[in-house]
């Protein structure tokens, strides 16, 4: 039987939305697995603190995924720091875009779609351009979606639409790049207590929502670790265009 490993010691990774929450955890996780990690986000002070905490394997890269020029500059900075092409991309940057459909301002709808969907596509394609140009044989792109992509989510219309778009964009890009060796996949997490939703689940409606989950709890951030490591590693050679629903049974 063939063996496999989640060792990332030969990989150069770039993670967006890395200044806090899941993105920060992803940065620590990939670095612990051996990767060199570029931590991308807008908040430079938080990024630098995290990079200092992780150590020599990490670099802080200030970037705003709503701006293609920022994304290009972020990849340039990462590759200069690594001395090689970024071959592993985690498109994680996102905002919650909460608001009822009839009252949400147009500007907030546009911003949610721009960060969550446009930003994810621009990040993935910039990584793919460089992997293809450098003939990287086993590039990895992981895009973070959400169970709201396929579960009706009142109050999260723009957010859920953006995450559904991420899944379909990833599948389409996986098909476009299938012969390049790049694997493009998505992870759709269930509800995890993060900076974005912590206040909600402390409210009475939030507590009622949690009580409806089969296991009556929120996921821990560690629930995504194994899948992310696998999808960023050589073990994902035969996995592309796939969405991994990791939700502790919340959608059952």
TrEMBL record:
Family: Belongs to the short-chain dehydrogenases/reductases (SDR) family.
A Pfam short name: adh_short
SUPFAM superfamilies linked to this entry: NAD(P)-binding Rossmann-fold domains
One of the record's GO molecular function terms: quinone binding
Record-given protein name: SDR family oxidoreductase
EC number: 1.-.-.-
Database matches in PANTHER family: 3-OXOACYL-[ACYL-CARRIER-PROTEIN] REDUCTASE, SHORT-CHAIN DEHYDROGENASES/REDUCTASES FAMILY MEMBER
InterPro entries, A to Z: NAD(P)-bd_dom_sf, SDR_fam
UniProt keyword terms in alphabetical order: Oxidoreductase
GO annotation, biological process: fatty acid biosynthetic process
Top-tier EC class: oxidoreductase
């Amino acid at each position: 039987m063939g063996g496999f490993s989640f060792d990332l010691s030969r990989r150069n990774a770039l993670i967006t939305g890395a200044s806090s929450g899941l993105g920060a955890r992803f940065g620590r996780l990939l670095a612990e697995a051996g990767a060199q990690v570029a931590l991308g986000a807008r908040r430079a002070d938080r990024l630098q603190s995290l990079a200092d905490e992780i150590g020599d394997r990490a670099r802080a890269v200030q970037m705003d995924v709503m701006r293609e020029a920022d994304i290009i500059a972020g990849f340039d900075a990462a590759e200069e720091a690594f001395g090689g092409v970024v071959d592993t991309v985690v498109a994680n940057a996102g905002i919650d875009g909460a608001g009822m459909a009839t009252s949400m301002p147009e500007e907030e709808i546009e911003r949610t779609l721009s960060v969550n969907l446009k930003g994810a596509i621009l990040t993935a394609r910039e990584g793919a351009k460089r992997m293809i140009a450098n003939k990287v044989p086993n590039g990895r792109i992981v895009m973070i979606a959400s169970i709201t992509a396929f579960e009706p989510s009142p109050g999260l219309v723009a957010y859920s639409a953006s995450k559904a778009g991420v899944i379909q964009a990833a599948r389409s890009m996986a098909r476009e790049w299938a012969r390049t060796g790049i694997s493009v996949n998505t992870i759709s997490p269930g509800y995890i207590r993060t900076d974005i939703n912590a206040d909600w689940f402390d409210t009475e409606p939030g507590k009622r929502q949690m009580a409806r989950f089969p296991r009556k709890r929120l996921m821990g951030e560690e629930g995504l670790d194994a899948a992310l490591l696998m999808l960023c590693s050589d073990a994902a050679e035969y996995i592309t265009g796939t969405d991994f629903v990791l939700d502790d049974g919340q959608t059952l």
